[in-house]
C-alpha cells in the first residue's frame, strides 16, 4: 500500500492532502474521503488505507487548509470526555468559517484533482465522509451529479439545515447514497422524514440508524468509538462502492 503526501491547487491556495492506493501499478477507481471535524490524523489514515486495500485510490484533503497544514489544531492521542470541550472550542471557529461557498469551491478542485491522477481509472468517482464530512460528501455529490456515482455519509448532519435546504440539496443528486446515522443523532421520526425526502427526490438510497451508537462511532481514537458500528459501516460502504465503481 502506498501513501502519498499531496498538495491540491484550489481557488484559495493549496490544500495539503494524502492519498492511499494499492502498490500494484494499476489504475483504480477514485474515492474522495472527507475526514470528520477533528481532521487528518492516524485513525483517518488507517481508514483510508483500509479502503484502498479493497482496490481504490483514496484522496483525503485537509478541510481546513486555509488555517494551516494538518493537524490544524493540536489533538490528544485519545479524545475523551475531559478533552472534548477544549478541542471543540478551538475547532468550531474553523468549522464556522468553512462556508458553503468554500465547500463547493474546494469540492470542484478535489474532484478535478482526483479524476486527473494517473493512478485513477476513467469513469465516475465516489465520495464518503464522516461527521461534518458526511454533509460535505452530499454537497459534493449534489454539485457534481455527472461525476459522482456513489456517496456515503456516517454520523453526519445531513438534513440538519431544515427541509427546504434538504430538498435543494437532494434535487441534483444522481449518485447512489448510503447514510449511516448514530442512534444519538437521529430519532426514528427524523429518519422517516429524511427518507421520505430522499424518496421524493428519486434518490437511490439506504439510510438507517446504527443501533447502540453515538456520534463519532467510526473513530477509534474517541470515546464514541463502537467496533460494531465500524464493522457495519464497512458492510454498507464496500458493497455500495462495488456496485457503482468496481474494485475488489
Largest sheet: 8 strands, mixed
CATH class: Alpha Beta
By CATH, the topology is Rossmann fold
Order of adjacent strands in the largest pleated sheet: 1-2-4-3-5-6-7-8
Helix percent band: 25-40%
Briefly note the structural class of the backbone: alpha/beta
Q: What order do the SSEs take from the amino end to the carboxyl end, as H and E?
A: EEEHEHHEHEHEHEH
| Contiguous uncertain segments of 5+ residues | none
- Shape verdict: globular
First and last CA, distance = 14 Å
Our estimate of the beta-strand percent is 15-25%
Rg on CA atoms, Å: 17 Å
Number of strands: 8
The appropriate CATH architecture is 3-Layer(aba) Sandwich
Tally of helical segments: 7
Q: What is the name of the CATH superfamily?
A: Alpha/Beta hydrolase fold, catalytic domain
Mean pLDDT over the full residue set: 95
Amino acid at each position: 500500500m502506498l501513501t502519498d503526501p499531496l498538495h491540491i491547487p484550489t481557488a484559495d491556495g493549496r490544500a495539503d492532502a494524502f492519498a492511499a492506493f494499492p502498490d500494484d501499478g494499476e489504475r483504480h477507481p477514485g474515492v474522495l474521503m472527507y475526514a470528520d471535524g477533528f481532521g487528518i490524523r492516524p485513525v483517518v489514515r488507517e481508514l483510508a488505507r483500509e479502503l484502498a486495500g479493497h482496490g481504490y485510490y483514496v484522496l483525503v484533503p485537509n478541510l481546513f487548509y486555509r488555517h494551516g497544514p494538518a493537524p490544524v489544531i493540536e489533538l490528544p492521542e485519545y479524545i475523551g470526555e475531559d478533552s472534548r470541550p477544549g478541542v471543540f472550542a478551538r475547532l468550531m471557529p474553523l468549522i464556522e468559517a468553512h462556508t458553503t461557498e468554500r465547500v463547493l469551491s474546494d469540492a470542484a478542485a478535489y474532484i478535478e484533482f482526483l479524476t486527473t491522477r494517473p493512478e485513477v481509472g476513467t469513469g465516475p468517482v465516489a465520495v464518503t465522509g464522516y461527521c461534518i464530512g458526511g454533509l460535505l460528501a452530499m454537497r459534493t455529490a449534489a454539485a457534481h451529479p455527472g461525476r459522482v456515482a456513489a456517496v456515503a455519509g456516517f454520523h453526519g448532519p445531513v438534513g440538519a439545515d431544515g427541509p427546504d435546504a434538504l430538498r435543494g440539496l437532494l434535487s441534483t443528486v444522481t449518485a447512489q447514497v448510503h447514510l449511516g446515522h448514530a442512534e444519538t443523532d437521529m430519532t426514528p421520526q427524523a429518519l422517516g422524514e429524511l427518507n421520505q425526502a430522499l424518496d421524493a427526490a428519486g434518490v437511490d438510497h439506504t439510510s438507517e440508524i446504527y443501533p447502540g451508537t453515538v456520534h463519532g462511532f467510526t473513530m477509534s481514537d474517541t470515546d464514541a468509538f463502537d467496533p460494531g458500528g465500524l464493522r457495519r459501516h464497512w458492510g454498507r460502504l464496500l458493497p455500495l462502492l462495488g456496485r457503482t465503481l468496481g474494485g475488489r
